[in-house]
Specification:
Two copies of one chain form a homodimer. By secondary structure, chain A is an alpha/beta fold. Chain A has an eight-stranded mixed β-sheet, with helices on both faces.
């Protein structure tokens, strides 16, 4: 009798982990620009200890017992959506363990194996992995300096319809996109909302970085433009408070939220953590913190841009208006497969561009995260990157 | 174009929520004995504030950033298993958002719609709901004063095999069972482990209450008796620390743990909360707290038993050696459907026994939880129950 015979067909084969460890080296300490982690310098310590004491001093039964998610957090999310122009209703908010939980649960609601899902090319590698594991057929739509190319989107939708294919959803990161750092223009947002209704396709709008704007005016999220209920907005407290708390959320069509709630099999998220985040915000810390994060990351971004222009003046890139990333096209003919090992030898780790494309293309790009590395090490890292590229160019 | 057309077949229909709100009444405040919540009096306030300050004062990047689950918590679970006689390996431990997350994810790994799953009759209603939603065909095996009836189990397994059916798993709560409060004898534990290997069936051993023993000697969990790797032990910090933190775990065969990790789509559990629990334990608070909980709940249980014997001497029941519950058979001919409304009028809420049977039978039973209600209200609640029963008997 074999235990493995009991597994459901899709889990017979063991899938590789979605996340790998950072590179290490015996030689010199590596500065990593590979991952979009938060800067530990700006993780709020005292405020969280204070908020913990406050929530435990009040209604301990609501915070530490079996209890629903903090209603105050649901209200907070709805209020923040209203500030963005959404006529938000609390019952359409679902609080989850990070926004990645939503990306993992969505296919259970929407994807039968073989169903088509549209993703940006390039996009967030974690989302690609979760959709692909559910058996989705991923179709990439290109991104340019103004975000997702809506002409390409429309022609893709038209071609698919001609072949009888209705994609289940489009996954997009409209603001300070991961990995390109670009922002979808207002005109394109409006066009996408129109196309969604016309083609009956859900738009999954992952706006993880929306609050981390360094300059320029905010644009309305697509969920604010959506009159017909095709947009699911995905949000997170990971970028504006702390990833380690694991608090994300979704807002959108009631029928979709209701079903996401069902496939979230463990029930509602931690009362303790959701009360903690709500209290942090109620004390006024969240808005103050976001303002300080914007200044902090803007300075780090500016430092990286200046270092790149000094060190690698021949490379052009789109300077981001916010977020965590700069997307770099390597010199003609150079691939990240060649650059990666040389850069590690020089003591800098970058994310290989092909990790960001559903079809594995994109090895002419690298993604640089300025979020996690100490600001003093950004110049060192970019010098090492410059040396690596010059070494390969001979 | 209809959004609902995009849902996968099993989510077209909207399933009702697994959990309902407690009863309320405009007349008199209701004392509820319906749910196995923790007593708010013994939720540890100061120790958790202190532990929060400690974890944030040390490696904040590991606690608040994107990071793996606290390794210290994995080690703690393995050490506690070793104390129970398990030769535990850390890589076979999976930390989850409450043990209910494991019960929700298990069917994704093991159950194709129509597959057979064995459950105790009666059992934990939340588990039944999660297995049934996944399309499992649930077969009940009776429970007596010594826990699961192993003769009935063997004949069920034999009958199923004769019909070509290999059940995917047996779900059992061996210690201070929910809802009956009974404990599986050592001989039966050994027999179940033998039967599991013989019939190639996984045993899901949910030992949520194991540490809340009021008297008597602890028995080894089945995972400690299992030489061939058929037992998955499910554990939780909800009963021994705080449900609101949502921290549970599973330990078992590597191939099964690896697959549970894959279907836990949001990745590893909160670094913040897992470090918090590990620190609470490292400071020595967990063992002290468990000792104090055992005294606290033992006293409440004794109060309820005394009140029942005084108020309803004609009813016999099995006094539990630990846990949260007393299981009561109603007088001949009385059903919980009749008793429930009368009891609510009298100001006491109980759990209807039929909520604990996969086939909806069991309306001749009620479950009384002594865990959540303040000790001073236990006598009042049992008096009201006695009045209700006497009213119905005329």
């Amino acid at each position: 009798m074999n235990l493995a015979d009991l597994f459901t067909p899709r889990l017979r084969e063991l899938l590789p982990p979605l996340w790998g460890p950072s590179a290490t080296s015996g030689e010199i300490p590596i500065v990593s620009l590979a991952y979009g982690l938060a800067d530990p310098l700006v993780l709020p310590r005292e405020e969280l200890v204070e908020a913990t004491a406050q929530i435990l001093a009040t209604d301990i039964d609501a915070v530490l017992n079996y209890a629903p998610v903090a209603a105050e957090l649901v209200t907070l999310v709805a209020e923040r959506l209203r500030r963005e122009g959404v006529d938000a209703h609390e019952q359409q908010v679902l609080i989850t363990y990070g926004s990645s939980q939503i990306l993992g649960l969505l296919p259970q609601v929407l994807v039968n194996p073989g169903d088509t899902v549209l993703v940006e090319a390039p996009t967030f590698m974690g989302a690609v992995g979760l959709f692909a594991r559910a058996g989705a057929h991923l179709v990439g739509v290109p991104v340019d300096a103004n975000g997702l190319d809506v002409e390409a989107l429309e022609s893709t939708l038209r071609d698919l319809r001609a072949r009888g294919v209705r994609p289940k959803f489009l996954y997009t990161i409209p603001t300070f996109q991961n990995p390109t750092g670009t922002t979808l223009s207002l005109a394109r947002r409006q066009r996408i909302v129109t196309l969604a209704a016309e083609y009956g396709v859900i738009v999954v709008e992952d706006d993880a970085y929306i609050d981390l704007r360094f300059h320029g005016e905010p644009l309305p999220p697509m969920v604010a433009l959506d009159q017909e209920g095709w947009v699911l907005r995905v949000g997170t407290f990971s970028k504006i408070l702390a990833p380690g708390l694991r608090v994300g959320w979704a807002y959108g069509p009631q029928a979709l939220i209701d079903r996401l709630r069902i496939v979230k099999v463990e029930g509602s998220s931690s009362p303790f953590v959701t009360h903690l985040v709500a209290r942090f915000a109620a004390e006024g810390h969240l808005d103050t913190h976001i303002a300080s994060l914007r200044r902090h990351y803007a300075a780090k971004c500016a430092t990286m841009i200046a270092a790149l222009r000094r060190e690698l003046p021949e490379l052009s890139f789109v300077p981001p208006d916010g977020g965590f990333f700069i997307w770099l096209r390597l010199p003609e003919g150079m691939s990240t497969h060649k650059l990666g090992p040389v850069a590690l030898e020089q003591g800098v780790e970058v994310l290989h561009g092909n990790r960001c494309f559903a079809d594995g293309s994109g090895s002419e790009y690298i993604r640089l995260a300025f979020s996690h590395v100490p600001e003093t090490q950004i110049e060192v890292a970019i010098q090492r990157l410059g040396n690596s590229i010059r070494t390969l160019m001979g």
